[in-house]
Design goal:
The chain has about 575 residues and is an alpha+beta fold. The chain contains 23 helices and 16 strands. The strands form 7 sheets. The protein has a 3-stranded antiparallel beta sheet with strand order 5-15-8. β3, α3 and β4 form a beta-alpha-beta unit. The longest helix is centred in the C-terminal third of the chain and has 30 residues. It is globular.
Length: about 575
């Protein structure tokens, strides 16, 4: 089971991609070294004429763009460490002695920790460091911390540093969304933070259906929402499996991104809390007519008995109990569905994965937010801000070239969240694995996690070893990544048009608005309130902070589009 948990963590890390991490760079002693190219002595930046620099500038001149230059003499770097990540590690490894610490030393970067702690107290410690102006030199900060630090002038200008030192792979990492998030790291025209890129390719709703039940009932894959509901109806009416009492399983977490309710709403072209451009301004999807229409449709199916009547109080673990007991043969989740279904498959159940079908002829778009959640920053006091970039370069290089040493989950955590690649490689792994299955030739790959993923998937393919099912179920020829590929090819995403930092009103009112929305969604589906109650909800949403948020969002949008 420990091996399975590690594989699950790997899959989630690759997907959430989205996570780029906490690192820090502070010289404990004054450092005058700059990274040297293996083939040359230190030189000034490409765009600088060293003969025109003042003497002091010449003494501290940084080198031309060798993304892997060694510091001579070495420099000291302070960082932050999320101690929760350091678990199940080899006995001979510690925070201060492990392959990543040793590798950074080879490049002349001596890493130590200025701030460390669990997830519950790390943010508090960073806030205290901000208040006392005793900052790590490089740090991951939240959106609000970024605003505070940038306004106070505590952050280094990374404009030239990033362009000069970032490797092509690091630059690609930050451009994977077309550079949308990078823009949020600029303040007054200067890049003062690397906004955390949020990959979204994997995040589409996936319908998991008992394929043995489909075969037993003589049913085909659903191509429309009506066909999906008909499958649920048939499963119940035939009591397939002898215990089927639930049509489509749902949980009480109706507004969590990757839950059944969101997937079903997307099938009716309704989206929760996504800002959409409409007639030159941004409007919130939550209060649009499509949401009302989708809730009306789900209520009708609830009345028909095709939605779990107890979903309003049910946790995901309870839904999986229904699956194990054969009470439910349809679940809407996401690309990691095979992890939830592992025990069911081990028990002999057969499952197949599909995209959420559309209620009409328009394609289903998967909602995803690229909202600014935080940034990787360098303290203005840091003498070597380029060290952060080089650490990113090193990480991206070595997890690809030597995954057995550096990408093992336990070892990897010594780098994460100090430095972590944010490139999403899941779909690349899937395509390369299919190539291998077709040709028998192992592809030449630099995709992070390919070797360990395929090794696990092959265990299941060749020997039906259940320990390999999760990777087979995600990356195999009938896995969830098949549906992700379709979404990528068709650009089937509803991406939030607001990508800025949370506004003041968002911070103040978001929790209230989420509670209001959760209640109306649940009440309408269950019939506690009529569909017409949605109109009153819209007015309440506006009065309880929605209008204030909309004004701030559109001020941001107008400023962005006018530049």
């Amino acid at each position: 089971m420990e091996e399975l948990e590690m594989k699950k963590a790997l899959c989630l890390l690759l997907a959430m991609l989205m996570i780029l991490a906490i690192c820090a760079c502070a010289a404990k002693e004054p450092a005058t070294a700059a990274p040297n190219s293996e083939n040359s002595q230190s030189t000034t930046k490409e765009n600088a004429d060293s003969t025109d620099l003042p003497d002091e500038s010449q003494e501290n001149a940084v080198t031309v763009a060798d993304p892997f230059g060694k510091y001579e003499p070495s420099i000291d770097i302070t960082t932050m460490m999320l101690e929760d990540n350091i678990r199940n590690v080899p006995e001979n490894m510690t925070m201060d002695s492990n392959p990543w610490i040793d590798l950074f030393k080879e490049y002349g970067i001596n890493v130590s920790y200025k701030i460390s702690g669990s997830a519950s107290d790390l943010d508090t410690k960073l806030n205290m460091a901000i208040a006392t102006e005793d900052l790590p030199d490089i740090m991951q900060v939240t959106a609000s911390q970024f605003q505070e630090l940038s306004e106070a002038g505590y952050l280094a200008d990374l404009t030239e540093v990033f362009e000069t030192y970032a490797s092509p792979e690091t630059k690609a990492m930050y451009m994977q969304d077309g550079g949308i998030m990078m823009q949020n790291g600029y303040v007054d025209g200067k890049l003062v933070g690397l906004a955390l890129p949020q990959g979204y390719q994997d995040f589409i709703p996936i319908v998991s259906i008992r394929s043995d039940w489909l075969e037993e009932c003589g049913l085909d894959a659903p191509k429309t929402m009506d066909e999906l509901w008909n499958i649920a109806k048939t499963f119940k009416e035939k009591n397939v499996g002898g215990n089927c009492s639930i049509g489509i399983g749902m949980t009480k977490n109706v507004l969590d991104l990757l839950t059944p309710t969101i997937g079903l709403l997307n099938g009716y072209h309704a989206y929760y809390n996504v800002w959409i451009e409409q007639d030159g301004e941004l409007v919130n999807s939550t209060i649009q007519p499509e949401m009302k229409e989708a809730l009306a449709a789900l209520h009708d199916k609830y009345e028909e008995g095709l939605i779990d009547p107890e979903f309003g109080t049910k946790e995901n673990a309870q839904l999986m109990e229904d699956v194990m007991a054969g009470r439910c043969g349809i679940v809407v989740s996401h690309y990691c569905a095979p992890f939830d279904l592992l025990n069911a498959v081990a028990d002999g159940q057969k499952w197949e994965f599909f995209s959420v079908p559309s209620a009409d002829d328009d394609p289903v778009l998967a909602q995803f937010s690229l909202a600014f959640s935080g940034a990787l920053c360098v303290s203005a006091a840091c003498e070597h801000p380029e060290a952060m970039i080089e650490m990113l370069n090193i990480f991206t290089k070595y997890v690809a070239e030597d995954p057995q040493t550096y990408n093992d989950n336990a070892v990897r955590n010594f780098a994460y969240p100090t430095i972590t690649s944010a490139i999403s490689g899941n779909n690349d792994i899937h395509k390369e694995y299919l190539e291998f299955l077709e040709t028998g030739v192992t592809p030449v790959t630099t995709t992070q996690g390919y070797e360990s993923t395929v090794e696990a998937a092959e265990k299941y393919r060749l020997n039906q070893d259940i320990d390999g099912y999760t990777m087979w179920g995600v990356f195999g020829p009938e896995g969830t990544e098949v549906q992700v590929s379709k979404a990528i090819e068709n650009n089937a995403y509803m991406i939030d048009a607001f990508t800025g930092a949370p506004t003041a009103s968002m911070i103040e009112y978001s929790s209230v608005l989420k509670t209001l929305t959760e209640q109306i969604v649940t009440d309408i589906i269950c019939g506690v309130k009529s569909v017409d109650a949605f109109d009153a909800f819209v007015e309440s949403w506006k009065l309880n902070g929605g209008d204030a948020i909309a004004a701030e969002v559109n001020a941001w949008y107008q400023a962005k589009t006018s530049n």
